[in-house]
Design brief:
Number of strands: 3
Bound molecules: NADP nicotinamide-adenine-dinucleotide phosphate
Number of helices: 5
CATH architecture: 3-Layer(aba) Sandwich
Order of helices and strands: HEHEHEHH
CATH superfamily: NAD(P)-binding Rossmann-like Domain
Strand content: 5-15%
CATH topology: Rossmann fold
Radius of gyration: 17 Å
Helix content: 40-55%
């Protein structure tokens, strides 16, 4: 399906200069032992298989020296928090996938970005307070993970 989407966007005379891989899924916050296996795996379906399919659909239409921006997550590389195993592990795997894209295609410029927490539909799941001013977007990841740990531990 994504191949069709790319083919509809471009034709033989147009190439893609900038590709942003933004789609992402956060499984419900749950401990590994009690998580819903299907929902847990959905993180990998979207964050890994979705990225894999998107890369393969994009490459035939990539301009020389195209830029690839992968919207990853601070939670991929921050200290691990209970309840976020699907999201964190699928996102760190996704970061690695885009690193491989870079080494396989040195002509591209591949950038993994790891944003902090921004209030969106996704973060409603975490029960974390949204804090969308510019300074907070950069700094509040540590604050948010601290509060997430406290809320999961019930303290
Ligand atoms: N919000 C944050 O604090 C935060 C922090 C760090 C990184 N990120 C990353 O930022 C990106 C955008 O997230 P967001 O916060 O804007 O969350 P969001 O509001 O939940 O948006 C997620 C987006 O991903 C798309 N998507 C989800 N599953 C998909 C699938 N299987 N196939 C195609 N599209 C799918 C959704 O499309 P539909 O609307 O059509 O469902 C939606 O556009 C994600 O990669 C997320 O991991 C977010």
């Amino acid at each position: 399906m994504i191949q069709t989407a790319f083919e509809q966007l471009v034709n033989n005379f147009v190439k893609i200069d900038v590709f942003v891989s933004n789609a992402g899924y956060m499984s419900n916050i749950a401990l590994i032992v009690t998580s819903d296996a299907e929902d847990w795996w959905e993180g990998f379906e979207t964050n890994i298989k979705g990225s894999f399919n998107s890369i393969r659909a994009f490459l035939p239409h990539a301009a020389a020296n195209a830029i690839v921006l992968s919207v990853n997550a601070g939670l991929a590389t921050n200290p691990s928090n209970p309840g976020l195993s699907s999201y964190s592990s699928s996102k760190i795997a996704s970061a690695k996938l885009f690193e491989h894209l870079q080494v396989e295609h040195p002509e591209l410029r591949v950038i993994n970005i790891h944003p902090g927490v921004v209030g969106t539909t996704m973060t409603e799941k975490t029960r974390m307070p949204a804090n969308n001013n510019r300074k907070s977007r950069v700094t509040n990841i540590g604050y948010q993970t601290y509060h997430l740990q406290r809320s999961l531990l019930g303290v």
